Amino acid sequence: MTSNIARILARLAALAKPTGRCWLCLEASHSPLCATCQGDLPAKGSRCRQCGEAGPAQCRACAQKAPPFDEVHFGVPYGPPLDALIHRFKYQRHWWLDAPLCQPLLAALAGVDRPDCLVPVPLHWSRRLWRGFNQAHLLAHHLGQALDLEVNPRLLRRQRATRQQQGLGRQARQRNLSRAFKLCGPVPAHVALVDDVMTTGTTAATLARLLKQAGCQKVQLWCLARA
Ligand SMILES: [Zn+2]
Ligand SMILES: [Zn+2]
């Protein structure tokens, strides 16, 4: 999707937004989620600094073999009430939900190292055509505007349609993803990959490895929710 289309969608989204109300409880609110609803979101608890897994500051998996990405930042643990909003955003084309969905992530990003650019996790063109848009690109666009960061949707390309990752084992996922992505252009020193939900992190790891092999020094993953 070109940046122009993302901009047009963002403008349409702005028109459809209910102004002055919280998206979850519909009470009057200046932000997309009111302070009460934001406070009621499930707590993240203690997390691994590198992969975001619940538990100690360094999980056993990262201690044994560090993943190629350096940090994971996310808004909420995946689950109610935002999972329903994420589903509507992704599958029912409710693009205007970008603001309430990004709010917890933006709060989590306070004080975090700023990347040189945001790179949405790419969709294969056939799936983008089917869905009508790449949800990660819309999120990156919203975050880029909020934080005044450049968005580069063309740095990574998915050159092969991959099967749905859901329900596949770890090895099958890796096989499925190998050679699915291609780097298109010079790599900045610090990149933040943007996606809606992180499940196993296999996709992020594949992309981070590709970026690091091309000289990228730091890769963060930013996502709305982490499973
Ligand atoms: Zn509310
Ligand atoms: Zn970890």
From TrEMBL:
Keywords: Transferase. Transmembrane segments: none annotated. InterPro entries: ComF/GntX_DNA_util-trans, PRTase-like. Gene3D superfamilies: 3.40.50.2020. SUPFAM superfamilies: PRTase-like. It comes from the Bacteria. The keyword Transferase applies. This is Putative phosphoribosyl transferase.
